[in-house]
C-alpha cells in the first residue's frame, strides 16, 4: 500500500499537510485515510486539526473512537490534537505556542488538516510541510483555487492567491533549511465517465503543474460509501465486513479501497523501516494468538 522506503530519516517527523482554501474538497476524508494507512504500516502517527471552527477532522476521529468502543473493534487511532484559536489580542503567538509542542513530539508522521481560509496557522503548517496534499474537486469552480482560465478556450491565464501563497512558503522553506516540499494535487469527486470538463481540467492542471511544480494524481470518485464512513469514523482501509461497517459490504467498498490504495502509492511517503517491522510483528502475533502452543514454544527447544 505505502511502498516508498525510508531514505536517511533525520529522526524528525515527516509532516503531511492537507491544504486548500476551499471547503468541501475532501481534506478531512483524505487526511484520515492517510493517517490510518500509516498506522496500519506500523508508523507512529499524530494528527492535528487546525480548523478550530468546523473541526471535521476531529469529529471524524472522535466518531472512529466511539465506533471502536461500541463494537469492541481494534480500530487504529492516532494521537490527536485540535488547536484552538487564541483568545487574546496576541492570537498568532497563542496559536504558535499551542501548535509547536505538538509537532515537536516523537512521531514518524504528523498529518495536519488545515482550514479553508487563509490564517497564520494555515501558513505556518504549509511552511512546515514535507508533503503537501491539495484535494481538488474536479471542476473549474475548484480549479479557481489554483489558477484562472480564459473563458473562451479554457487556457490557463494566471495563478490564484492560494497557489502564490504555496509557492512563497516553499521558496522560503528552501532558503531556510534547504528542504523541499513535495506538492501533490489530488483530483477528487472524479466522474466515472469521460467528459469534456474532465479533459479540460486535466489539461489545465498539466499546464499549472509545470508553472508551479506540483504533481497531480487521481483521488476519490464520487461514491456514497465515503459519506457513509464519516458517522462511524471508518475508512476504505478497514476490514470490509458487516461487523466493522455496520452494514452488508458491497462492490462500492471494494472499489473505494482500490482508489485509496492507488492514491497512497502515488503519494510516495517515506516509511520508517522500524515501523514496518512493528506492523509485521503485530500481524504475526494476531495470526498466532488463537493457535495452541506447541511443546517447543513452551520449553524453548
What does this structure look like?
The protein has one domain: P-loop containing nucleotide triphosphate hydrolases (Rossmann fold, 3-Layer(aba) Sandwich). Helices cover 46% and strands 15% of the residues. The protein has twelve helices and nine strands. A seven-stranded parallel sheet has the order 3-2-4-1-5-8-9, sandwiched between helices. It has a two-stranded antiparallel sheet with strand order 6-7. The two termini are 37 Å apart.
Question: Short summary of the structure?
Answer:
By secondary structure, the chain is an alpha/beta fold. It is 46% helix and 15% strand. The chain is globular, with a radius of gyration of 21 Å.
Q: Which strands sit side by side, in order, in the main sheet?
A: 3-2-4-1-5-8-9
Helix content: 40-55%
Which segments are poorly predicted (pLDDT under 50) over 5 or more consecutive residues? 5-9, 296-301
CATH-level-2 architecture = 3-Layer(aba) Sandwich
Strand segment tally: 9
Distance between the termini: 37 Å
Oligomerization state: single chain
- What coarse outline follows from CA principal-axis ratios? globular
CATH topology heading = Rossmann fold
* Most strands sheet: 7 strands, parallel
Could you tell me the strand content as a percent range? 5-15%
What count of structural domains?
A: 1
Helical/strand content category: alpha/beta
Return the string of H and E elements. EHEHEHEHEHEEHEHEHHHHH
Using the CA coordinates, give the radius of gyration: 21 Å
- Count up the helices: 12
**CATH classification class:** Alpha Beta
CATH superfamily: P-loop containing nucleotide triphosphate hydrolases
> Which whole number gives the mean pLDDT?
85
